[in-house]
Structure formats: structure tokens, C-alpha cells
Amino acid sequence: MKSKKFVLGLALTSALLLTACGGGSNAPAPSGSAGAGAEGTTGGSVRVLLNADYSHLDPAMGFDTGVKNFYRLIYRTLTTNSTEEGKSGEMKPDLATDLGTPSNGGKTWTFTLKDGIFFEDGTPITSAEVKYGVSRAFDPEIGIGSPWAKQLLDDGSGYKGPYIDKDKDFKAIETPDAKTIVFNLNQPFADFGSVVGQNSFVPFPVGSGSGKGFDAKPIASGPYKVDSYTRGGELKLSRNEKWDAKSDTVRPAKPDHYEFLFGIDGATIDERMLAGQGEDKNAISGGALQPANVSRIQDPSVKDRAVRAEPVCTTYLTMNNTKKPLDNLKVRQAINYAIDKSSLQTAGGGSQLATAANTIMVPSLLGWLDFNAYPTTDNKGDVEKAKALLAEAGYPDGMELTLDTRGTPKIQAYSESVQQSLAKVGIKVNLNVIDVSSFYEVIGTTSQQNDLAITGWCPDWASGQTFLPPILHGDSIVAKGNQNVPQLNDPAVNKRMDEIAAMTDVAAANKAYGELDKQIMETAAPMVPMVYENVMQLRGSNVDPGVVGFDAGIDLVTLSLIDPGK
């Protein structure tokens, strides 16, 4: 088994260090190597086997880890994550010539575009197309993905994107010439060079992409374009001939074609990849290995084809703070005590795939603090403490709650574990099973949320700034595309987040986020950290998987075939 470990380092966008950003990590350096000892070459077609379709092909709408990995095949942004071994957390220039130049105390950022950058139809990518692409994030129906543009570029004008406010000039973004784009932020932000690498900063031709247009047919700026797409069935990519490798030092883009096959049962994917026959020699499993099959990777014929990434994401149980009785802190604390995390670890595949979590932030983040606000023996839960807290809250006989979940085997196992834990303290949990491809959109629509949800978070880069504020700051609560699933709006927490964001001492800011994690769990308890998940994927014998990406899992833009002729 190849253990792919990587450093969650951050590129320092300038010497102007105003918020939490840094240039290193205490994560281990890389060990193991990609592939079977031979580097892949150019050409051939790679298959990706997936249980469910991607949430959205429109980058303003999708924000889950899997689709963010996919986007880099067909889209480019001003900056993007490195594809160097061991440096996938660092940001590199992409469409821009560098990581940006700050001024105005860190509230203004200027980028210059490279030469030789085009869309798939040959149209040049200029500053106008970048501005147009970013402005789409402000559309209330479309901009349901990454929140960073909306949070940092909101100029207070109530701008609603280029389709609704067709005649309004969004002054937060200026385009003094075709090569220059200037962002006027509403607050200093030292690591804005990382922000412009997020999905909502993909450029598009001015006037394109209204409604769900890009979900059916994207306009590529990256090395591949969409040839055909059947929702829930198949997605085929071929080379974008207008992409110039000279302008892109990040993406190796070695295969000629990618074929994504959706709707395959997870167990079937595992069986195909474990067998590794026929065309599956040129395939990878797009999702994680099923927990039931972990023991089978010890087989010598399989072991070398397993690719494992260390945890960079936390899976947690959210509690909707706006609904009774979950608006009661003691109830939320009782649920934290009640959950058997050893059972969750088993459901997640055991120690190979999951580690019991007690913090919201994942350990690989800078400034992470090791604590446990609700300790129980062997992480098995404490029924008596939970019952006592429920009685204090006025619910001695328990209650009935609805859990929003997905029907994948692992998430189903998590859901059943939660059901069993809470049943022991008198809480009946009903499961609301949502289609995998629409799950995040549903739970991100506040009017459709139920009491509980099993979800998780992976940082956009290795700072607590990209972990706690997006999912727990009250200002991040929106009607659609809501990432603050617990809908926590705690004035003390909000105030502390704002204070940390304004810090000029990077190390102090990182440390403060770790301490804030502890404060949130002790005084607000909006969620139950369940597990830190490892990702384990299988590759075909003819696939060199390249590197593990920052968001965990094989970085699709680094894949190649060892022998494209096979």
C-alpha cells in the first residue's frame, strides 16, 4: 500500500501578514511513491469509477471535495494548488503571473494575467472574463458554492450578479486593462492569493452561463473540455486544443481522454478495482474504498495498488441550533456525550480509514489544539451523563429527531451508529435519506434542513481561517448554499473570529483558532466531531496516480498511464 503523506504548507502571498497564513506544517513529509515505480507518459484514456455524479459542473455551484478535484481538469483560476509531491497545500500562479500584489493595507489586491490563455473556442481570457466569472458568485441561485468571493468582495451594494443586475457595474472588481484585475476587499486579507484559487474565481466569457447552462455544457479554460455528458451516467473529456501548456506550469495533463462512469454501486467499484482486469487496469476508484474491503488490500496483488492519504477532513454530526430542542445547549452537550465514537470509527472502516475525532478542526491544520470537551471511556459515550443533561434541559424522556443523511454504505453505517447511540439515551432518530448528488445543496438550503445532518469539512488551505469561519460564523448563514449547517450565530464566537482574522501575528492567529475550536465545543457545542477520515483509493495496475491532492485523494490532474498503449 502506498501511503501518500503531504505537507499542508501555505504559499505566503506577500510579506503583508494580516491574517492566519503560514509557510509550513507539522504534518509529515511525503513517504512512498506514486505508481508502480515507473512514471506515466503522455496519451491514453483514464477511467474514473464513481458511485454518484458530481454535484454541479458549474464551479459557482459546486463546493464538495470530489467536484473541486474534478474542476481543475476543465477550469483554471488565478492561482491553484501545487501538484508538486509533498506541496499540494501550497498555492501557485495559474492564470495570473504571480500570487498577487497587495496595497491599501491589504484591502486591495492586483493581479496580472499571463499571455497565451484562452477558452476552448479560442476566445482570449482577459480581465473582463475573470470579473464576469467571479461576479456570478453573487447570483442568489447560482452562487451557492465557495463563499469566499461573497464574503470578501461584498461592497454593501446588494449586488446580485450579472444576470439579475445586468446594468450594474460591480465596483469591488476593477479591470483597468485587459491584463490587469483589481479586487477591492471589505477587510484586510493577507492570503487573498489563496482565495483566488477557489472555484468561484473561474473565468467565463461575458454573457455566458445563465441558469444551469454550465451544468450541462461547461466552457473550458483548463487542459480538457467536455465532449459528452449524460447526467448520472457518463462524462467524457478530451484535450482542449486551445490550452497552452506553456502558460500552465501546474497541470501535467498527460492522458488524452478521461471517462467518468457514474451510478456504480460502491461494492461493485471495489470488486472491479480489486480484480483489476481489462479496461479497469486503466481506471481508478473515484471514491474511497468501502470499509468492508479494507482487509482485502493486504493481498500482495492489491497492496501496491492502494493509495492512502492522511486525514485532512473532519466528518461531524451537526445539530440545527434554530430548531427546538436543539436550541438548548444542554441538549447539544448531551448528544455529544451520548455518541459512541468507537462505533463510528468501526463504521468508517476502522483505524485504517478513520480516527475518532474530538475537535472540529482536523489535526493537520496549523494551530490545531488537542482537546476533548466531552471525554468518555474509550470514546464509547457516556449514557448516564447524557441522560442527566437531558433531564436538566427538561427532556427526561428524550425526544424524536430527524437526521439528514445519504444512502452510501459508509454514511448509512454512520447514521445507524448515531441512531443506536442516541436510542440509549431516549432519543429516537428518523433517517431522511437524500440523493448523494443533491445532498449538499439540500442541507445547504436552510428552509429544507431538518434537525441533524452528517456532513464534514475540508480546509481550502491549511489555516483555521478556512475551517471555522466558513462553517460557524453567523455571517456565513445564507438561505441557499449555506455552509454553516448548524446555523450557529453566537455573538461571542463571531466576535472572536473577527478578532483573529484581524491579527497581524501569524503564529498567534493560528494558535488562537485552535483555542477557539475548544471554546466553541465547550460553550456552544453546535456539532459532534465524529471521525477524521483517511482516504484510500485503488488504482489500476497501468495507472500512475501522481500525487495526493490537498483536499485528499488522488489529484486528477496528476494522473497518467504507465503504458498508454495498453
Description:
Residues 1-20 form the signal peptide. Keywords: Signal. InterPro entries: Peptide/Ni-bd (IPR030678), SBP_5 (IPR039424), SBP_5_dom (IPR000914). Residues 90-475 form the Solute-binding protein family domain. The protein has two domains: 3-7 and 33-260 and 539-561, D-Maltodextrin-Binding Protein, domain 2 (3-Layer(aba) Sandwich), CATH 3.40.190.10; 310-534, Dipeptide-binding Protein, Domain 3 (Dipeptide-binding Protein, domain 3). It is 23% helix and 19% strand. The chain has 16 helices and 20 strands. The chain has helices spanning 65-74, 127-135, 148-153, 161-164, 192-195, 213-216, 266-275, 300-303, 329-338, 341-347, 383-392, 409-423, 439-443, 468-472, 491-501, 506-523; strands at residues 2-4, 45-49, 79-81, 91-93, 101-103, 108-112, 173-177, 180-184, 224-230, 234-239, 257-261, 283-285, 306-319, 354-356, 399-406, 427-434, 452-457, 527-538, 543-544, 560-561. Strands 1, 13, 14, 15, 16, 17 and 18 form a seven-stranded mixed sheet that branches. The chain has a five-stranded mixed sheet with strand order 9-10-11-2-12, covered by helices on one side. A four-stranded antiparallel sheet has the order 5-6-8-7, with helices on one face. The longest helix has 18 residues, at 506-523. The chain is globular, with a radius of gyration of 23 Å. Residues 1-38 have low confidence and may be disordered.
